Recover the amino acids of this structure.
């Protein structure tokens, strides 16, 4: 079974991630979004701990908290970071810039 892809949005304060099933079908975003939420990485980048972005975090970055329009923007303008691997929201993970098992504080 293929792993979902992460679409990445480099934000001014935080980085945001949307999961998709097939990068070849980005134009058909309504049918491919794996998890209909926008996630935030407070440590920066696409790897590490991802939490669901709050409405205020979305509004601060995108000028709106409308998940539909934000997902569309990330799908159209975001960067595909290939395979999403395992999705573990709120759990510590490996930060490649810091080494295995270490988490920035």
């Amino acid at each position: 079974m293929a792993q979902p892809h992460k679409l990445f949005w480099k934000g001014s304060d935080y980085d945001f991630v949307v999961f998709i099933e097939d990068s070849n079908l980005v134009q058909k975003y309504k049918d491919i979004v794996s998890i209909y939420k926008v996630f935030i990485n407070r440590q920066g980048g696409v790897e590490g701990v991802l939490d669901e972005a709050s409405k205020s975090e979305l509004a601060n970055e995108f000028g709106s908290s409308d998940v539909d329009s934000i997902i569309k923007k990330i799908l159209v303008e975001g960067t595909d970071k290939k395979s999403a691997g395992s999705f573990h929201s709120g759990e510590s993970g490996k930060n490649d810039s810091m080494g295995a098992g270490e988490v920035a504080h």
In short: The chain has one domain: 5-82. The radius of gyration is 13 Å. The helical segments are 29-32, 55-62, 67-77.
